[in-house]
Amino acid sequence: MATSTITNRIEKARKGVGVSGQGAPDQGRKKKKGISARAWTLFAFAFPSLFLLVLLNLYPVIYAGIQSVRDGDLIDPGNFVGLKNYTDVLTQPSFWTATRFTIIFTIVGVFGSWLIGLALALLLRTRVPAGGLFKVLLLLPWVVPVVVSATSWNWLVATPQSPLPMLANALGLGNVLFLADPVLAQVTVCVFKVWVSFPFMMMMMASALAAVDVNVYEAAKMDGATNWQSFSHITMPMISRSTYISWILMTIFCVNDFPTIFLLTGGGPVDATTSLVVLSYRTVFQNFQTGPGVAIAFVMTLVLVIVSVVLYRQIRKVNIE
Amino acid sequence: MASQSSGSGSAFTRRGFIGVAGGMAAATLLAACSPSGGSGGGGGGGGGGGTIKFWNMPWGNTEFNKLDEEITKAYKPEDGLGAATYQVIQWANFTQTFSSAVASNTGPAVSSGGGTQAFQFEAQGKIAYADDLLESWKENGLYDDFLPGLLDTMKVEKGYAAVPYNLDMRVLWYNTTLLEKAGISAPPTDWQGYMDACEALKKNNVYGYGTGAGAGAFTGTHALVSWMINNGGGLFDEDQKPNCVTPENIEAMDFVLEMVSKGYVDPASATYTSANVDSQWEARTFGMGYNTGGLANNVGGDVGAELQVMSPLKSPSGKQGALFFPNSIMMYTNTPSQEASEAFLTYYYQNMTPLWTEGTGIGLPPLKSITETEEFQADPTNVKIITEWQPVARTWAAPGGDALFFDVTAVDGTPAMDTFSQSILGGNTDSKTALTALQSAIEGALA
Prior knowledge:
The complex is a heterodimer. By secondary structure, chain A is mainly alpha-helical.
């Protein structure tokens, strides 16, 4: 009898029926009622945003989609060519060269900035003299407009009289061509991206670390855990959700990053630092080929969506665990 | 019954809120759908109410657009013709600005713009041909006032796409002090002399061929094409088809590659911006090189005073020449009245002389009468460029012709040209390979 009662209670609970015996509202009855006044109110609140969202985002996306299957330019929409622009783009060596650099740029940008951001967030969690000032100074690369940053970096590395080439020369490394050598230009652009991005990661990680209960560390310490064990078994798992979110965001920032690359190298030398977004820009606005240019952008978007979905699934997995 | 609110105490009811929100949304929708967005400038038609919208670029220093606006606003149209309004369009993203405006019929009736802009829009049927205007200028003397051959550069198959406005020349500069220190008594006059001067400068750690082809620095590309034109080459043949792999071009690029390999070219040049190039001239590490006619002013200071324009070199083929850009003013089909557009342009060309005589920093003038003014003649550099370089200068259309056409947009500041220039200045290629790659890249862009 008792067993039966408990089973019934569990069954009731699964169905959403409370102890008082009142269950969840009758779904069938609700359907008959139609749209409630509350729903209308919520819709009215949401409508302006939805309207602007559709107007500002959906229309351009649809228009761009149409452009990607036509052979037009900036003025003339051109003729329908089906998927020709996509096949042309995917068979061009320049697309795959740009894809390769985009992947390198994104991996270095995401994980480079994350490692530095996490390290600084951990450092600033301890008592550092003038920690507040440090935090403000460390935010500068993120706060300063990228045009200013790019000009500064150009001054830092572009000519033989720039500080870094002069330093390299003084160290006996000879005339180091930070921007003119294709490999070094890639390295320089990636380092620039990490420099611009680490403050964002630092803020994300700092807020995640702030949410970790100090008592957990104390308990682990009492159990004899080393600093590394605390970091790897407590800190990392507990900030993993924020970490995945920051990776998703930074992946999107890196793949879509146009000014960092374009202002520093213009995509050169000899296309060495041309990413997909730079290639798309140059195809549309310098070659006046909107179809292939927009097709590149759509391929990028598709890849970004896939990467985001994979990382979001990882976040859900973390939540469940 | 006094209030519909349910105990909140607020007089602002849900029904009222929805009403206001709905009203605002409707107003926003209506505003978005209105033709002009309330700017007061009218919708399409190149200027509502019959006014002529004139869009001009910042061609010179800060004084340029002020004076230009004064000239524009002083226009007093004849009865029945619209007045002119003035708008400065910044160079940043100007292609997008013009393209979107012209595509949406909210663009200007008359404008200047990029060097190949008229030909781009002409191909789209957006340009009003200047044939009638130029015909009328035969009567008032303006037509014959243009420098020789200049009007022909604007002629396309169906008519004149635009009217020449200012000339952007690529000329060879040298630093008098650095040449003197290197023991060079006079600037070179031919390619061998140039190479010898480079060797002498190198002994003093000075680069003999100062250039840059980095982000936004198109002068490096212009310089390479100038070497080709100097040797009787260029990028397009008589049929206006790309023809890059020619003996003249190969010889010219061999010459540049020899300079690169001998260390006469700064190895970082491939990624120098215009500012980097100017800074190298300022640092006295560049002794000679192609640049715009305004280099000495851009560099300024003591070094600016040391810079001089040399005479055009004689190439191994015995020819002279360099690239130049006849920037233009164009009329659009989207105008309240073609007659009004033409009347305004006639007024403008008859009254634009102060733009050159009052030191606004604009490029060289298209009219002989301006080059003959006392103020213009007072600048020996400008006089030298007009008298020695302009007569031998050629457009992108060289060697096949001088009249510009739509396909030159495939070589004007395009990725194909950037890649070509950076590969040559990087030195890790040979002329034929680089020119063949350029040929296929241009063909690909035009396909």
